[in-house]
Every structure is written in structure tokens, then in C-alpha cells.
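Researcher: Here's a chain I'd like modeled. Treat it as a single chain, no partners, no ligands.
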Amino acid sequence: LILREASAPHVVYRIYVSVQNTMQCNVIIYCKSKDNDLEVRVLSQGDYFGFTFNVNLWRTTLFFRGFAFYYGRIVYDIVKARRDSHRCTHCSWEAREDRVYGF
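Model: Modeled as a single isolated chain. C-alpha cells:
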């Protein structure tokens, strides 16, 4: 039991992430971390996708997301615990015609 507790990740806090497609075309999103693969999703105009996860004690939790749509593809770090811990615990993103915006 002691070994199990020592090796279990220590949760500092939870983050909720949501992404909404505001474009007229479909957006294909792919989200992944070191420990989680959230599969490919297709968002039609107005659709959104959300998920929650725990940030570890060392704040090294990282999720990256890929977006593919009519205008091209982009991949970037959608949540970096060290970067975003003061920005949001409910991180909202919108896919718009010119780029993806975080709020």
C-alpha cells in the first residue's frame, strides 16, 4: 500500500478544456498528452468538445492539440500546466476563420 501511494500521481488541481468550432466548415481535432489519447473528433459549425484532467504535483502536465480544417493544419500546446496555471482552470478555445483563440 505504501508503494502504491508513493508511485501514484499527486493531483494539484483539475482543469476543464473546451473547444468550439465557429467556422462554417468542419474542424478535425486531435488531443493527446503523455498519458491520455482523446481520439480524433470532427466538430461541425457550432459544435464543441470538452474534457477535464488532473494537473500533477510537478505541474508538468501537457496537452497538445492538432486542428485540421479547410485552410490548413496547426498543432500546438493547448494546455501547459506551468504556463496556464494562472490563466485558467476552465480553458476555452474557439476555432475561427483566421486562427484558434484561447480565452
